[in-house]
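agent> fetching stored inputs for the adenosine-5'-diphosphate docking request
agent> found them:
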Amino acid sequence: MEFRDVSLTYPGPPPVTALHPCDLLVRRGEYVTVVGPSGSGKSTFLNIAGLLDRPTGGTYLLDGTDTGALGDSGRTALRGSRIGFVFQAFHLLPHRSALENVMLAMVYNRIARGERRPRAREALDRVGLGHRANALPTRLSGGERQRVAIARALVARPSLLLCDEPTGNLDSATAGSVLALLDELHADGITMVVITHDPAVAARGMRTVAIRDGVLSERAAVPDGA
Ligand code: ADP
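agent> prediction call returned; pasting tokens
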């Protein structure tokens, strides 16, 4: 993903520049962490990177496609095929099994109906939860729920995984196993962008980008906790 002079100003009034013009290049197969205090612009960054919001300035290229040239349906298709999202809150439907939660992610992805179940099973196997496929989220631990959410993010076989505080709701032991899973996915070739407050999470990345007051900058050193 490549940002060229990308910025976002909310119109207001008063107008708020949540992201000042910035450049960022995340190469295929990189693992980049993004740190910054609350209100610094992390969600704004994520929403632009994830094609949920359009920047108000600059150019965003994803896999070489100028996303600004796409209409809404083109953006939705690109998002669905290239990007998986993992959030702090797992956002699972409580009355659907793990398998059904993962299958539902394919409804909007033009994946043939007959393929959805085997693909969901494969994704649950990939995150080590094949044996819990029929469990309801309420019967799963926090770490297992996040694994289901990761399986859901993987099921369309995205090239980029965007994670927003993926361990924010987990105790440290469970967080460690989820981070180990993210490392494995990265080793498998998925490009990772992980937003976090946690210096231990930030340190997993190959490099860290800091956002402060809407200004994005590369950080060379080991992060100190933003
Ligand atoms: P973070 O995710 O780091 O907490 P955000 O990206 O949510 O930060 O917000 C960055 C800045 O943009 C904050 O000052 C916030 O108040 C402002 N902001 C966020 N959303 C809107 C909006 N819809 N309209 C106006 N200002 C907004």
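agent> quick read of the result: The chain has one domain: 2-219.
agent> awaiting further instructions
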